[in-house]
Design brief:
Elements (H helix, E strand, L loop, with lengths): L2 H7 L11 E4 L2 E4 H23 L6 H24 L24 H18 L4 H19 L1 H6 L13 E2 L14 E2 L2 H23 L5 H18 L16 H22 L16 H6 L1
Antiparallel strand pairs: 1-2, 3-4
Helix pairs in contact: 2-3, 2-5, 3-4, 4-5, 5-7, 5-8, 7-8, 8-9
Length: 295
């Protein structure tokens, strides 16, 4: 096979959808929303399996999702609006647009924080111990976040610096930020994060099984792996946000650094103090799986 023929088989760029919305009669179907919903479904399904494997009752993770998902969506939107408020407030802006979640814009840190609050509330109502719940859910958040990143592909947003690599992402001229109009392909940061998140999911789950982790150490591993990858990928991005530059780093970079250090410190402390072993019961009252099924 000649070099020219081989080159024809290798994609020289990744195309982007020119329109991430499809009309199903009077109902618009948005690619961004589909990615978020699919990520949530996969995360809830895998959380359910992990919860049952740890000694919980089937169906309880779905009940927790009824609290965690709405809280997470609200938190994600609030974080985005706060850190990028110039898009919604000020001259020529419409504050009502802050409610248009379907157009994109969910801050992952806000989604994690309020989503965890919703899960904690639901867990306490059902007598489920906090650490086992969070340790069961945490790795599946990597899957939800990775799948959800495909929403950025549909919206042609949050891509990286210009690149001529074969997997460069094609961006329409009207979606390119000021100063980059002459470039056609950019780093597909959504794809980088998807690949990283999926790989780290299997890494965290493997470590969990290998060392029988508990006491919040699985949660700490999730935070560390996600923050490390997110911090590296953030260095490629060129989109502008409020709080863009704090001492030379983006706000999201600082969040990644702070949370990574906090998670690493907790993991080390829990390990040293002997508080990171797998719990014998995932319920406050010490119920066994058999007791839970009979309840």
């Amino acid at each position: 096979m000649t070099a020219d023929a081989l080159a024809g088989l290798v994609p020289l760029s990744i195309p982007s959808p020119h329109d991430g919305v499809w009309d199903l009669g009077p109902i618009p179907i948005r690619g961004y929303a589909l990615a978020i919903v699919l990520g949530i479904i996969v995360a809830v399904w895998m959380s359910e399996r992990r919860w049952v494997a740890r000694g919980g009752r089937a169906g309880e993770m779905q009940d927790l999702a009824l609290w965690a998902v709405p809280f997470g969506l609200v938190g994600g939107r609030l974080y985005h609006v706060i850190t990028d408020h110039d898009l919604y407030f000020g001259e020529g802006r419409s504050a009502w647009a802050a409610l248009y979640v379907w157009r994109g814009g969910l801050g992952v840190w806000g989604a994690i924080a309020l989503g965890a609050v919703g899960a904690i509330i639901a867990a306490r109502r059902r007598g489920m111990r906090l650490w086992p719940v969070l340790d069961a859910i945490a790795p599946t958040c990597l899957l939800a976040q990775g799948i959800g990143r495909w929403g950025n592909w549909f919206n042609q947003e949050l891509f990286g610096r210009p690149t001529s690599l074969p997997w460069g992402l094609e961006i329409d001229p009207d979606k390119r930020p000021p100063g980059y109009e002459q470039y056609a392909t950019f780093h597909p940061t959504f794809l980088y994060e998807f690949i990283w998140d999926v790989i780290m999911y299997f890494v965290v789950v493997r470590l969990d099984r290998r060392f029988n982790l508990g006491g919040g150490r699985v949660l700490a591993l999730y935070v560390m792996t996600y923050c490390f990858g997110r911090g590296m990928i953030e260095l490629l991005r060129i989109d502008t946000v409020e709080l863009h530059d704090v001492l030379g780093l983006r706000w999201s970079d600082w969040m990644s650094i702070i949370l990574f250090v906090a998670a690493a410190a907790y993991f080390a402390w829990a390990t040293y103090r002997g508080r990171g072993h797998r719990e014998e019961s995932v319920y406050v009252d010490g119920r066994t799986p058999q007791d839970a099924e009979a309840a």
